[in-house]
Amino acid sequence: MFEVTTEYDKKALLVMNQAANKTFRRGRYLFHKIFHIVLGLWCLLGGGMLLLIFGQLDTGERVIAVSGLVIGVFSLFKGVFYNRLSARASRKMMVEGTKCWTIRFDEEGLFGESEEGVQSAYPYAKVQAVYETQEYFLLQIDKLHCVILNKNGFTRGTCEDFRWFIADKTGAALRPIKI
Fold first, then answer.
1. What is the DSSP string of 45-101?
2. What are the tens digits of pLDDT across the range 86-108?
C-alpha cells in the first residue's frame, strides 16, 4: 500500500522533538525551559554581583562566585537550546546503525526495517496521534517513541493518499503543526 524511506538525521529528530514539545510534552517542556532560563539568569546575576567585590572575598567565596557564573551559563544555554539538546539526546538513545528506515504500511499495521536489518512493527491501534509538519508525518506510538516519515521519501503511494489512509486506520485525526 505505502512505503516510505526516512533518514533519522539531525533535522528529522529536531522536528520530532519540537513537535513533541508543542503537543503532548508541552507542560513539561515549558517548565524545564523556563526553569533553566530563570536559574541561569539568577546564577549569572548573583555571580556577577559577587565579582564586583571579588577582591574582598576569601577563597571559598571566590569559588562560589565563579561557580555561580559557570552554572548560570550552562543553565541558560540548556534553557535556550532545549529543543536541540533533546534532539541530540534522542539521537544518542537510538540503536546504533538504525539511522535510515524503510516503513511499510499494510492492512494490519506498519513494519519498519533499517538498512542494517533491525526490525520493528506496530499495529495501528498502538498509534496514539498523527502529526504533520511541512516536511514530515509523525506517528506518536507512546511518550518515548515516534515514527518519522519524510514526505519526500514515499516510494510506494503518495503523501496525499497517505493522509486519508492513516486517519482511517488509526482513528486519529491528522493534526498539523507549524515548526
1. HHHHHHHHTGGG--HHHHHHHHHHHHHHHHHHHHHHTHHHHHHHHHHHHSPTT-SEE
2. 888 877 777 665 688 999 999 98
